[in-house]
Hints:
Strands 4-3-5 form a three-stranded antiparallel sheet. Strands 1-2 form a two-stranded parallel sheet. A two-stranded antiparallel ribbon has the order 6-7. By secondary structure, the chain is an alpha+beta fold. 37% of the residues lie in helices and 9% in strands. α1 (13-20) packs across α4 and α2 (50-65) packs across α4 (92-116). A hairpin with a 5-residue loop joins β6 (196-200) and β7. The site of zinc ion has 6 residues, from loops. Zinc ion is lined by residues 134, 139, 142, 164, 168, 170.
Amino acid sequence: MATEAKWGSLPPEEAIRFLRDKVNMPSEHWDDLTRDDHDASFVVAGAVKADLLKDIHQAVNRGIDAGTTLNDFSKSFDAAVAQAGWDYKGGRNWRTRIIFETNIRTAYMAGRYQQMTHPDTVKLRPYWEYRHGDSVRPREQHLAWHGTILLWDDPWWQTHFTPNGYGCKCRIVSRSRRDLERMGKIGPDQAPKEAYYEWTDRNGSVHKVPDGIDPGWDYAPGASLTDRAKEIVREKAKSLPSDLAERLKNIATSRPNPTTPEEAENLGGTILSRLPEPVNENDTLGCKKLV
Ligand SMILES: [Zn+2]
């Protein structure tokens, strides 16, 4: 049985770097940036002041490299908000939980992605297994994917690498040939059949999103992180004109970064707005230890 572990007890260097290297990017709307623009940008919907973003970014960083809790983060968030005089949308506990969890979980899996795609790892453990982890109100599709084993470079992972939505605690683990044999398998499974639904972003562009994945989450965090991609985002950050909505309007796809539970509920009927309150605010994210 997997043991519960604090994020902070497993601080993979790649995850820490992923989060730290993000460039603070002011944004007014959750769809100001593309899906994998999030790989290189730190964004809090509605936050445009540099100091505010810097403070929140640093508080999130501490969540992964020092293992600070949601409660710690929320206090830092309050201080940063008071300092900046920011009048944000949405309830405080809801916002802080979404910002903290999303950033840390995504960074964590981006770190795993980098480790698991390293040529040495691929050689020894070329299979990836989808492990369901949404214990409260599981998403049906995520449950259905549990135990699916595919080769690491199967195109299915490009859209289904976790997390696959807000609050998604599913994860991917690598497996060796011997692991497969122990499971009684002679090779990888067939990729699950995909169906798509349509999602319309703020600019009116319609996107096909695989069933079971929240809008804008159909990508592998960290996979876009080439030096070139980082450079593009840095350049973008430098040349921001004053009209934030206008400057990014040509960016079509995005990962929704809703500011209220209602906004979240409208995003394809996800479970976001029904995220449970933490049992104990001092708990960390309850991430299952990765094997
Ligand atoms: Zn999930």
